[in-house]
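Our consortium's second objective concerns turning raw sequence data into structural hypotheses that experimental partners can test. To show how far this objective has progressed, the report includes one record in full. It was chosen at random from the queue rather than selected for favorable results. The single chain below, 275 residues long, was entered without modification.
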Amino acid sequence: MKNTVLTFKQAKEQGKKLSMLTAYDYSMAKIIDESSVNGILIGDSLGMVIKGEEDTLSVTMEEVIYHTKAVKRGAKSALIVSDMPFLSYHVSIEQAVLNAGRLIKEGGANAVKLEGGANVAPQIKAIVDAQIPVMGHLGLTPQSVNAFGGFKVQGKDESAAKQLIEDAVLLEKAGVFSIVLEGIPEKVAELITKSVSVPTIGIGAGKHCDGQILVYQDMLGMFNDFVPKFVKQYANVGTVMREAIGSYVQEVQEGTFPEEKHTFKIDENELKKLY
């Protein structure tokens, strides 16, 4: 059954936890979708894990549309949510609606996600009024990395925590169907989750959120140079991949691959005609 914004709403009402992962291409989207995940996010995290950038700020609308198309072909059941990249919704409400519409029309997304609280509530309302579902995003919002002075946990004092709670309520009033809570104390995330009727999706926000999301490269252990505190590695796929590729390189160099079973034949009579 296809996951929809209604699926997310009903999950919170029924106390069922939601699961989400990122994906950026057809192959991974197909594997993730077959694992019964509720939602797939084409995150602007592609700037870091796909493009190798230091942050998400360089990601463009065209890149998110491209990757959304690929994911759409592989995912049949998961709700497909596309990130609105930096400066795609900041300049004007009209621009925000048009860009959100592109992710739906050109990319094939089921919903869009954008970062911020009260400052983006007007854009969210306008996008929702255009019949486009919106997922909010509060806390450590990566597009604000320069304003935050780095990737730092948010909401650690009373004032900041209250602001997050107020922003969550404002986002719900603006019409979001769910809110990502990133990099905030667990107890603050719990308070936010109890303050809104829409599901909260946590990443580095503790177990009391209505669901969880991770970047798939992190949870599969594809990179070992840095593992965020909030990530649990469910496998060490990076090691398996490096070992397999190393074996391939060695066999090619030694001439043991390809073997006879990997080759095609030609009839001997046809072969003689070539000489």
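The partners drew two points from this record. Residues 240-273 form one domain. The chain has a mean pLDDT of 96. Both points have been shared with the crystallography group to help prioritize constructs.
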